[in-house]
Amino acid sequence: MRFQAAFKQQMAPLSIKELCVDCDISQGDIAKGLQVSRSLVNLVINKAYQPPTSPDIRHRIERYLTSPERGQNVTQWLANKEMQLADIWLPLGRNMHKAHTSKHGQRTRTGIKAAGNGLSTINPDIHVMTREVTMITEDTRRHFKLFRNPFIGDVEKSSDIYKSDEHRYIEAAMLDAAKHGGFLAVIGEVGSGKTVILREVKMQLQRENKVLFVCPDSTETDCINTSMLSDAIIMSLSEETPKNRREHKARQLKKLLLARKGAGYQVCLIIEEAQDLTTRALKQLKRFYEFEQGYEKLLSIIMVGQIELNQLLREDLHSEMREVIRRIQKAEIRGLGDDIHKYVEHKFKRVNVKFDDIITEEAIAALSRRLTVDDGRGKKPVSHAYPLLINNYVAQAMNLACEMGEPMVTEEVINAL
Fold first, then answer.
1. Domain residues for 44?
2. What is the pTM of this model?
3. Residue 214's closest CA among 197, 195, 200, 231?
């Protein structure tokens, strides 16, 4: 197919590449202005690709470049080079693969790791998807005969959730901590599935009716203090007004926890967005955790946060917190790895579409490679194939396949993103 042949060609940028770099016009800006994918613009500029579904793409790009916002700079650039507008489609004659515009020069690997944090993709030159939700266009839905977007509003009941062994382990760890007085920190990237797992845990605890969970407002975690934590528990467990003095409030809190334990209930404090907690608040959680009746803990604690929570729980960075940190069990959500196929198949199945009609096995393998990272220390590569990233990659790949007139998402389509 023409698209596959275009992808296999070596990079041979056209003169428009140099124009864009010198005039600070990114391929993403052009794509947004033309309402096409960035990948399509990349192929047109770097490999002289002529998409059969957009035969006028060059004319549209020319109109974008000569619009009032950019026209003066572009005209001046052409004059300095003694070139006509049509000359931008001539071969440049050199490779500018590493050249970037000044505004968009830092290609942040959003959703994997930003450069400088010690992690890089196996292929450092690839384009990595952002965490923002990628929509499947109407044309794409028609192209693949989809009546619903499989990645939007995709959890309406428990059976809609795809659970890998990793997710099942995290869920079991949370349930065990809630029921048996644990102190657990669940850590995961944006889009890794933390919220979905927590929702499942809450629903199961409600069904079993043996654990009473307290959930402070997650929007206030950046200013949580001793009083706020105490008040949240007291008001959730009773209709009492929290005492004003700290020692009186502590006695009131312990009395309520003892009463719930006596009635056969375990109380569990669940803190979301825990990466925003202060060290002082974390110390207070440790004091709550020390409330006991005999050998039994009166309060279970589960913190759920993004990967920045790891920094808060590093003993080498917070030596004064070691007595707290050493009591906390950590459970980190990793990528789906070898489960990517099953995950995508599950998403398509719930909208009555066959996996084999949309995407090839080779494309899934390419996606797995794209979402595999190396920590730079010679350790085994780690999968960062989180559900949100997979959703975005597949959605953008489907959009690109539609633009190219491809009947399926192939390895070449994934590699062209």
1. 1-105
2. 0.71
3. 231
